[in-house]
Amino acid sequence: MRRxxxxxxxxxxxxxxxxxxxxxxxxxxxxxxxxxxxxAQGIDPALFDHxxxxxxxxxxxxxxxxxxxxxxxxxxxxxxxxxGGKYKIMVxxxxxxxxxKLLQNVGRDxxxxxxxxxxxxxxxxxxxxxxxxxxxxxxxxxLAYDSRRSEHFRKELLLALQIxxxxxxxxxKFKGEWAGGSGQxxxxxxxxxxxxxxxxxxxxxxxWSSYPDVFASIANYLAKNxxxxxxxWAIIVKLPADFDQSVIDKNNLKLVSQWNKLGVRTLxxxxxPNQDLVASIVQPDGGxxxxxxxxxxxxxxYNNSIYYAGTVGYMADGICQKSNEAPVTPRxxxxxxxHHKVHPSY
Length: 346
Description:
Blueprint: H1 2-23, H2 27-40, H3 45-52, H4 60-67, H5 76-83, H6 86-98, H7 100-110, H8 114-125, E1 134-135, H9 136-145, H10 150-165, E2 175-176, H11 189-195, H12 211-224, E3 234-238, E4 254-255, H13 256-261, E5 265-266, E6 278-282, E7 289-292, H14 294-302, H15 306-321, H16 330-342
Antiparallel strand pairs: 1-2, 3-5, 3-7, 4-6, 6-7
């Protein structure tokens, strides 16, 4: 009986798979339908044809990446030291010095700490040195045609076509990582429309090659997602032996004064600072225990990973801790002094 049930389920699955395949549009049918939608949204038909004449079908490499993303876990420290280690911090200090006046202006205009602008820039594209080599429209078209999130990627694809249609970037420069993020900020097209800034006032939001636009776009992203200037992102803390582990959750918010009453302390054993702020306890695998503030949650909007947010914060601290040795502006020096008070290093 069990064999019969197993055979029946196998045949049912095969039948469903055949029907799905048979009912799916061919690539050329799908592109023709997409063209109608794109042209209705104002895309130049000749431009559309030019682009898709060079894309004969879904990219097998992109599909492979989409279906075989790595599952193995590594510790926080391994992730941090791989993605944001000493060398990347050293380069970040140099970039902070090179662009100090521009970063000061951007930081002032958007109310965002320049150290975090540089850290995110370094985290995303190694300070603009590696932005990815996949043609964005080809990537998004592949994922929109054959993906578990086809509707999401179809919307991104149509927005990408709008970006090229409005001459914001040349097609041969419109490249990025395999899932469609591009530029030195690694924005998806929807993020470009929402957060990219024409800081140079030249009519283009150039996140690909303009430092002013890149820095302002990162700052604008942080500002619009709740960045609080001169507030901490996180501090490392220690928990009492009898601490209730069930309350360790990035979404479990309490006043710092409440965490203080529960016995949470600084690494030196002192009562917690910033008693009137709201925070959560975060404990990444193989990493320190963080008291994470609102700015930590803002970093999570860029990439919803506590490993990622913790590494960006670590880089920002490292970039600023020794940059007082460089001839930076008084404002940046003051911000770094504030930074030291609330962001102890690992």
